[in-house]
């Protein structure tokens, strides 16, 4: 087979792939307009001294049998045999920006297939598949997607976190060895979101080359970035398998999850914009095209204390605030008076709802709002009728005492009886009630996930997808929210079956500033649940003004998390104000390009959204703590048209700017704040506007509108 070179292009990105005699990425970076296959001669590599006498490529399977001494792309064996395959290309299929390369090892009896798709957004999708070609069980230990990176990719940015503190970024230099990030908690996890950004040292929001990767998978995963002793770099991403979990018989195939990757030559902003465009065009599928409705969720308002008459009062007050979707959270089903009982018993609690849910739903609908409800179908409490009848329905290993988490166990979705029971009960709930929205929760980590004694976490994840698929097909008009103790199950694969994420159980506006920024690297604002909570946050007991809470919640899919009946007039007026402001801005927020602005002071966060045609923009300046400097500097506004003129307006400001101050707190703020100047885009991008002095935990919202 001839030496075949394929050039894929998408957006501002080019990918050059050598297909034979093995599959290898030669170039991944800025779009090339003058490329010729003859050009690859310049990339022919030397053979290092003191090593094996042939070149060892970083091919798609990262074969250790070729003399590549890093981590191979697949590991496995057939009763101790066929453990070091060497794959050579047997077939190449190229169609536009899609490329499939099939390689085989006839001795090991294995086929390794790689699929690449370079979307018009510039996002690369990649996955591999392994097929056993000969008799005998092939035990697969690992199967990864491997992508090479250039030598200048020497700094890694990834995420850590925990419950109520998700999406916290950290950075590490890739000097020697490797960086491994693993999740074994049974869901995407709050601890280690499956993503990495690797780039030129010092890359920032607005500058530097960066390659971003996200594994679309809702189970255990492993990501690693390695530097070989010859200086070459690579990244690998994979679903993490338990021992014995993946076995292939002759003719059977195992596929990796999709890895999504985005190259940017101008910092993290362009990387994010490419991911956002890809999500909007290729992943999100709303039942109807309409603005994202403002939510009110009852959880922090009433918890388990359900009284239909009172809930209808809450709905009435919610509608008066401009709420468009009213959601009843946990506590509506039989025996659910606290979090220690009743999960699994998906029947209406007739003591709380003697007339059923219909009067409440009708009241909500008559007020012009949609109706939503909370469920946690994958879980079961030991104190439940379902557990007493079917203790064998747990996802567990026989002979061991399964540890509980939040007083609950996990149901084995691989058991057909369990799966059918959940389909039946969810179909009753969604089919016999006028439900528009489901908040789907999952509140614990998974320990010893066994089905009939064997490890079954991967299968459990796939059955979860199937359950959502079945319900989505039966009830195509219903939207689903993915929630897992807040942000524990957020990824592209679950987003194919849902329409919104609950970003965090923490509604503290100060914490949310950084949590929401972390999420914004891969997900557009319209899928990020962001709520205004109580003045005293239930997660942290910290208090913030309604202005800071409202502005923090503005840049997502907005909602309210409280009891509006009990709130005072000032708070209700604030909720109504920011609901209206979000509704005015959401056509821009939910369609435009997100920009995060580099600042010289880590106590300040600035981000905004610029419309696709660049005629409007809105930016939020948030002062998180005491400023480092006595003067806050200037905001240079990215993304606008250089030759257009824009009116700059203050859309919302903290109380300090409205009333000034007294004594030593008196401040003279920049004059332009109250003059709405008209400035050209070139000046705004390069000179900018001087920022006012802000108090800690306050924010300023600025608007930019083109004057024609």
Describe this structure in words.
It is built from 13 helices and 39 strands. With 708 residues, it is of the alpha+beta class. The protein folds into three domains: 4-283, Beta-galactosidase, Chain A, domain 5 (Distorted Sandwich); 295-591, Aldolase class I (TIM Barrel); 595-706, Golgi alpha-mannosidase II (Immunoglobulin-like, Sandwich). Strands 5, 6, 7, 8, 10, 11, 13, 14, 18 and 19 form a ten-stranded antiparallel sheet that branches. An eight-stranded parallel beta barrel has the order 20-21-22-25-28-29-30-31, surrounded by five helices. Helix 9 (509-520) runs parallel beside helix 10 and helix 10 (546-554) packs parallel to helix 11 (569-589). Residues 660-664 have low confidence and may be disordered. Belongs to the glycosyl hydrolase. One of its GO terms (biological process) is carbohydrate catabolic process.
Summary of the model, kept short:
With 708 residues, the protein is an alpha+beta fold.
- Shape, per Cα inertia axes: globular
CATH topology of the largest domain: TIM Barrel
**Mean pLDDT, rounded to whole units?**
96
Structural class category:
alpha+beta
Q: Using only CA atoms, what is the Rg?
A: 27 Å
Spatial separation of the terminal alpha carbons: 60 Å
Beta fraction: 25-35%
Largest sheet: 10 strands, antiparallel
Percent of residues in helices: 10-25%
Family: Belongs to the glycosyl hydrolase.
Catalytic activity: Hydrolysis of terminal, non-reducing alpha-D-galactose residues in alpha-D-galactosides, including galactose oligosaccharides, galactomannans and galactolipids
Binding site for substrate: 163, 329-330, 406, 439-443, 483, 505
Protein name: Alpha-galactosidase
